[in-house]
Amino acid sequence: MADDILTPEASDEREAGHYTLDGPFTRSVLEAVEAEDAERLAELLEPLHPADMADLLEQIEGWQRAALLHLYGGRLDGAVLSELDESLREEVIHLLPPDVLSEAVRELDSDDVVDLVEDLEGEQKTMILEALSASSRAAVEQALTYPEFSAGRLMQREIVRAPEHWRVGEAIDFLRTNPDSLPDQFYHVILVDPRMRAVGQVAIGKILSSRRGALLRDLTEEDFRTVPVDQDEGEVAYAFNQYHLISVPVVDEEKRVVGVITIDDAMVVMDEEHEEDILRLAGVGETRISDRVVDTTRRRLPWLAVNLATAILASLVIAQFEEVIAQVVALAVLMPIVASMGGNAGTQALTVAVRALATKDLTGSNVLRIVRREAAVGLINGVIFAVLMGAVGILWFGDIGIAYVISAAMVINMLMAGLAGILIPLLLDKAGVDPALASGTFVTTVTDVVGFFAFLGLAALWLL
Amino acid sequence: MADDILTPEASDEREAGHYTLDGPFTRSVLEAVEAEDAERLAELLEPLHPADMADLLEQIEGWQRAALLHLYGGRLDGAVLSELDESLREEVIHLLPPDVLSEAVRELDSDDVVDLVEDLEGEQKTMILEALSASSRAAVEQALTYPEFSAGRLMQREIVRAPEHWRVGEAIDFLRTNPDSLPDQFYHVILVDPRMRAVGQVAIGKILSSRRGALLRDLTEEDFRTVPVDQDEGEVAYAFNQYHLISVPVVDEEKRVVGVITIDDAMVVMDEEHEEDILRLAGVGETRISDRVVDTTRRRLPWLAVNLATAILASLVIAQFEEVIAQVVALAVLMPIVASMGGNAGTQALTVAVRALATKDLTGSNVLRIVRREAAVGLINGVIFAVLMGAVGILWFGDIGIAYVISAAMVINMLMAGLAGILIPLLLDKAGVDPALASGTFVTTVTDVVGFFAFLGLAALWLL
């Protein structure tokens, strides 16, 4: 019953060509685990895509994971390890028999191995590196010398390249004689000059559909881009999305090709960056749904502590006006409204700004216009809600003075919300701080402090 | 100077292989427009990628756009239209001379034309459809019969297919004799049975690197998936990301291939879905940085109005305790802290839940465990901050009673925040409402109401 409620459309989705884990399936798996029925378990798990298998491991509890891997570990596809959430990798690797682990790792592409070992330490890292062939190990160790989150970490080192003077026939013959050296998937043949510098690339569809005598040089894509090996992976993902790239050569300082990044890796990075943004905006550190209570608590605590500090700051503002409140208790009833409206308006403005900064839609070209616009929007919404709240004030408390106070405070705070919502992300960005991370706290601090101060301050001036 | 502040690293990024519009560049463009110097303008704009050209048009003001297109419209690349933000398309199309528009549209792939005309109406739509060749027009009109946001709208109709019994040599010969019928980019040859049903697909890299005599059937990818033509585009993007797909055949109800979706289109959809989530979580409707003041105001107003209603609701709770506040004004000072901490904790929990629902990491398999975890996290953080606030209460007001009240209220509200933060998104999802859209309002309403009620209610019980 609970499963009915919480996995709507599970059956639709399976029909639609991709498989979503649902309650009944997971229950069958766990029953097979409990019955120690290795055969039934294999029957259930064999058809799973490695990504779904990783999801399954993430969704069950630690002791269930251990029991499942005890029964099934020997058959685990190596690709599951690179699909698995980082927080669980160490645990799962620890649970696998060493020979299974070696076998699994040898099947992976170099970029996946890098992804796997970069978060491991000591014994586990050594064990995995030793499982690789000498050439793969050298490749992985080389990749690990590039900075974290750089193109160098993201790229695969298997490169399909051809001298710039080759013809289609030569390229096809070369590919046919060396099929084992090719990466699993490739989309371009990179043309290089004698010094191995990338000079262009040809889509392999173009090679397939051209005559053997055609020069590769004549088939190159018009819009040719390369990525420096130390570029941030977020910038790489942005470029893929902006320019509809499929695969891009990665070059070193001398413009020599050292690897290739493909769009599927860029898509994963984009997804991770989005997740980071959305969680940071909510003041949540890197969190996984699979985290345990203690990890989750620890990750959320810092921002709650910051919030407590800012809430106390706002209370200190209120404390300055205790006398006023003691005389007009209605102020205590209404004051949260002004702060709340400011907080909301500020959050709207800052979210649009954070997103626009991330997509490079907010630049030097339009920043002044956008700041003016946010101020105008804040002012207009402020006036609209000032009129509304003025009316509420009169109807509720029958006091025109209170209506004046709340209306004026509303206009002031909404204007401040708009300005803080755009200026704080801009300043944080300029200071090199991710605006998604800290804008929310700063903006709501401004709107709380300004909201309480304007409302209670005006009340002290006008009502006493 | 202002530009220096707001376009940090602009020069780095250009060096890094992709071009970011910055203040000085945009200023040069606008100067050329003002001087009506068409030659200089062309010199500046010619090297721009269509996506960057679209960004430029989005970042300048309406009258500047009109003047720029007046001078440069004749040379505009058709691809700019499909890169352009929907809100500006109509305006830009209106500014282009009809013959330029026809020329531009004829260069586009069928999926881009669909993307372009689906938001247009009347005269403009007719004009664009009439500019197409009869066959292209039929293709576009057919695509428009599929529901909005479906795979049918997203797919391109140019399909590269081969009979399942063909060999590599036959496929290459076929492709070489029909190069003009091929799409710009393609990554697989789809194998079809005599009834045109997809039975598998072969990566073209595999075709290139295999001998002419090899059977295509023996080269097919192990993990073969198709997408039903009416599947939601968000589900399609999810499948591409989860299973690292590059291109997927789209099939009708009889499993016949009707089109192909490629990963670059899926990446655009994923980006749009993320944007929608992030903006909806902040209570911002579909907004663009290029929107005018009046549109922005109108789009933000509804959620501010909802927030006003919930803020008034919270005030009504406070109003029940006016007498208590009149006697102990310290309560007015402290009460926003309880509400604010609950709101923050609730927002953390709901953001994690909304994200986990979007990535299908929260399913029937683990929902009970996650609900229990959120309750536990809420309780633990509640106790931690109860102790802290109890200490603050004693130090600040020297009153052990106030310390008890705020501590107890803090535990209650943080626990409620955790529960509301997970249960409200789940219930909204079950009800078919996007949890990103409405969770925030509901959760903060709960934490405000519970926070004020618990704090003031306990104060009424214990302090009077």
TrEMBL record, chains A, B:
It comes from Tropicimonas omnivorans. The gene is mgtE. It comes from the Bacteria. The lineage of its organism: Bacteria, Pseudomonadati, Pseudomonadota, Alphaproteobacteria, Rhodobacterales. Residues 1-20 are annotated as: Disordered. Coiled coil: none annotated. Homodimer. Keywords: CBS domain, Cell membrane, Magnesium, Membrane, Metal-binding, Transmembrane, Transmembrane helix, Transport. Its main location: membrane. It is a multi-pass membrane protein. The keyword Repressor does not apply. The keyword Zinc-finger does not apply. Belongs to the SLC41A transporter family. This is Magnesium transporter MgtE. SUPFAM superfamilies: CBS-domain pair, MgtE membrane domain-like, MgtE N-terminal domain-like. Residues 219-276 form the CBS domain. The chain crosses the membrane at residues 375-396, 402-428, 440-463. It is found in: Cell membrane; Membrane.
